[in-house]
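Hi C.,

You asked whether I'd gotten around to modeling the 205-residue construct. I have! Everything is below, sequence then structure, no commentary in between.
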Amino acid sequence: MSFIDFLKRLDKIFFLLINHDSSYRYLDTIMLVLRNPLTWIPLYFIMIWYFFKKAGRKSWQIVLFSLICLAVTDSTSTLFKNIFERARPCYDSEISGLVRHLVDCGGEYSFPSSHAANHFGLATFWFWCILKITGKKWNWLWIWAGLICYAQIYVGKHFPSDIVAGALLGMLIGSAIAKIFEMFQDSKLKVPKISFGFFENHAQN
C-alpha cells in the first residue's frame, strides 16, 4: 500500500468514526442546525452591528470585502472540486453502504469542502479586521467555523481531509483579502499632497 493509499484509508476510518460510530440521536438535530446557513443569520447581523459600532462608515466596506471573500472562497473551492474530482462519501463505492445520510448527498465531488473554505475564510477575514480595529483576538471565530465543519462530516457530506483542505484554503484567501483590505484602507488614509509652489511662485512674479 502506497503512502497516498494509506492516507485515503485513514481518512475513511476517521470519517466513519465520526459519521457512523460516534452518532447519537440528540446530536443529529444539533449538527443539522449547526450546518444550516439560516442558523447564523442573527450572527451576521450582530457582526454588522459590531463593525458599525467600532468602525463607523468603514463597516460597509468590511461587509463588502466579506462578501468578496465569500465569493472567492466559494468559486475557488468549486474550481478545485472539478479538478480533483474526489467522490463524496455517499458516492464512494467502498463505504457508501455505511454512510449515515442525514442530508441529501449533493454534488458528486467533495474536495475541498466549500463549507470549510467559506466559513474559515470569513472567520480569518473577520479575525484580522477585529484585531486591526480593536486590538482584540476573537479566537472563538475558529471554534465557530470548526463546529460547522465538524457537522459536515457528522451528517455525511465530507471526509475529514475535505474539511482540512477547505479550511486551509479559506484561511489563505481570508488572510489575502484582509491584507488587500488593509492596503485599501491605508491608500485612502495616506493621500499624497500635491505641491503648487511652482505655479504660486510664477503667479507672484
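If it helps when you're writing up: Residues 26-189 form one domain.

Thanks,
B.
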